[in-house]
Amino acid sequence: MRRRHFLAGALGLTASPGLAAAPATSLRPLQRGGAKTVRPAVPSAAQLITRAGLGGRIGFAVADAQTGAILESLNPVRPMPPASVAKAVTALYALETLGPGYRFGTRLMATGPITNGVLDGDLVLVGGGDPALDTDGLHALALHAKEGGLRAVTGRLLVHGGVLPFVERIDQSQPEHVGYNPSVNGLNLNFNRVHFQWARNGKSYDLSMDARTERFRPDVATARMAIADRAGPVYTYARDGDVDAWTVARSQLGGEGARWLPVRNPDLYAGDVMRTMLRANGITVSKLERTDEMPNGTVLGYETGAPLVKVARAMLRYSTNLTAEVLGMSATRQRVGRPETLRESGSAMSAWLAERAGARRADFDDHSGLNASDRISAADMVRMLTAPGAEAKLRPVLRQMNVGEGRPISVRAKTGTLNFVSGLAGYFDTPSGQPLAFAIFTGDLDRRDALTVAQRERPPGGRSWARASRGLQGKLIERWAVAHG
Asked: Among candidates 264, 281, 251, which has minimal Cα distance to 322?
């Protein structure tokens, strides 16, 4: 363990509660001439926490970003659910393992010769894990094949997503229909979501399930919707072979509307849309199947994603769970080999964090923070933020936001929100230019655990609790800007 982290940890562990509040006046010596440097009085952290009235547990730590020395802390070693703050850990894990210029790729391959425009063999869509692959990208692959002279396929359209393990859903405890909890695989399309739209037509409804982008709206056969005459639940899900079979309660539809639903057969969903894009380019192929074997053959088209640094920046800005899981599992695959499960990959990231930054009690079951079973302490989060070289990689990709009231303070940070769980961690400069690193975690886990599955999408009191937690985060940062400038 590096010396500065030992000292920082010791300070965080031994400081008494009375030292948590900075003095109203500076402790600097008097300057010549009798002038004394005076700082404005600020509320203590204890006062701010009392005013917030959150209940549950709170832990925070703020440190000098250059030295890692802890300046102020409360329950710094208490493990807390980080929610989407975990994505900041994932971003550094992926950037340092894969490199900022790494690009995911998707291939369209032919397993046999092409004669007079006819492929005597199978056409294979091979996923490289690209979390941002969309319908436009599949159309580009089909166009490559057309420009190469392909017109028909005697064999099948195969899909291969085995570069990463199949994860049916990121968090098993979430409601079935939430789009932020999709399946994950090595072949992911449109963030593994399908667009469901409805419109009243007389006494019935017109329904559609498609893989839309701004350019295309191809209907899909791997997901279907049926209307059920019931009061609730709003949606039900069942797997019918290789089809995602949904039902929706008629009483909940109203006149018209739309929403994104998660996909549970991501490779076949991508193949379904790929076949439509091929047909749109004059290429016919009949049967669609998945394959576990990496094919040998000729590459007809190759689509690359954006550099990893841009993918990480978008993930942190929009907090896309699928992207986080793909980045995390891809980094684990590079470091120790292909993981068999998401939890195994999360454990590999926990071990990396212990080695990289001296984290003592980090325990991840995923890379997005969607699972409330993830744990990290404020001290461990700050250790990562202040580890050698971490700020230079993380600060540019973290989202810039303003917090506080009056004269807002600009921070580069990642937010995290689950039901009755909230977090914020990152960097900011005090008005005097002092760079600080911080982590704040709040959670009322008893209140969270009492929710039924039906309540988890919109829990009673959840919005007001989250608003109070964000308010406390802003007040603490305002305090630190003055007390530790």
From this structure: 264
272 near 243, Cβ under 8 Å? no
Q: Which one, of 270, 175, 259, lies nearest residue 225 by Cα?
A: 259
Residue-averaged pLDDT of the chain: 91
pLDDT beyond 70 at 18? no
Crossing angle for the helix pair 86-98 and 378-385, to the nearest 10 degrees: 30
Strand ranges of the sheet holding 57-64, from the earlier edge strand across to the other edge: 70-74, 57-64, 435-443, 421-429, 409-418, 399-403
Q: Angle between the 321-336 and 86-98 helix axes, to the nearest 10 degrees?
A: 40
**What CA–CA distance (Å, rounded) separates 192 from 478?**
40
Structure tokens that stand for 328 in this block? 């995390």
Predicted pLDDT of residue 408: 86
Cα dihedral value 290, 293, 297, 298, nearest 10: 50
Residue 34, token pair as written in the block: 């009798």
CA atoms within 13 A on the CB side of 423: 32
Find, among 249, 307, 289, 296, the residue nearest to 103 by Cα.
307
Question: Roughly what angle, to the nearest 10 degrees, separates helices 45-52 and 462-483?
Answer: 160
Return the closest-CA partner of residue 479 out of 116, 46, 111, 14. 46
- E strand residue ranges, 330-434: 399-403, 409-418, 421-429
pLDDT of residue 485: 79
* Residues 87, 324 contacting (CB under 8 angstroms): yes
pLDDT tens-place string over residues 51-64: 999 989 999 999 99
